[in-house]
Amino acid sequence: MVELLSLFYSSLHLAAWHAHFPSTLERWMWRSSAIAIGVSPLLFWATIGMIRVERWVYPPAKKDRVGMRLFWVRKGLAVVLDVVGFVVMFVMVLMGGAYFFARGFVLVEAFASLRSPAKGTYDTVQWTNFIPHAG
Q1: CB 105 within 8 A of CB 33
Q2: pTM metric for this prediction
Q3: CA-to-CA distance for 63 and 72, rounded, in angstroms?
Q4: Of 98, 130, 79, 84, which is closest to residue 32 (Cα–Cα)?
Q5: Is the separation of the CB atoms in 56 and 78 below 8 Å?
Q6: Per residue in 80-107, is it b (16+ CB within 10 Å) or e — as a string?
Q7: pLDDT of residue 127
Q8: What is the rounded radius of gyration, in angstroms, for the C-alpha atoms of the chain?
Q9: What pLDDT does 33 receive?
Q10: Measured CA angle at 21 (ends 28, 37), to 5 deg
């Protein structure tokens, strides 16, 4: 449920993909922050899934007899999981920092972008042009 809420929150900020920003740098930082907010929880749940596979590969210390064929499958998966686990944990640490930076940047930029509003923000709208009428 948390990942769905985070994806929804991220999609709200991704909806401003083509919005007006004071500078090109701020536009790209907004876009990358919105993507980081959406990707971080997915990466977290991928890590949880890998931990579940790891529990199958490295079973708890109990007396279970594993066939020779299954032993080599587990042995091969153990080597792969060690390498992938290191990479995923490294990326998780980076994405954890990026997630907090992204949330902070989105909050600050929402107010900082008020210094340079889009052209036409203060134009007066002639509402009678939108109302169908005769004559």
Answers
A1: yes
A2: 0.68
A3: 18
A4: 98
A5: no
A6: ebeeebeebeeeeeebeebbeebeebbe
A7: 82
A8: 25
A9: 93
A10: 45
What integer pLDDT is reported at residue 46 of this predicted model?
Answer: 79
- For 39, the token pair is 């990707």
pLDDT of residue 35: 93
pLDDT of residue 61: 55
| Residue 29 and residue 102 in contact, taking contact as beta carbons nearer than 8 Å | no
Low-confidence ranges of the chain (pLDDT < 50): none
**Per-residue model confidence (pLDDT) at position 59:** 62
Residue 47's closest CA among 10, 110, 107, 93? 93
DSSP state of 130: T
Q: In which residue are the tokens 């134009």 written?
A: 123
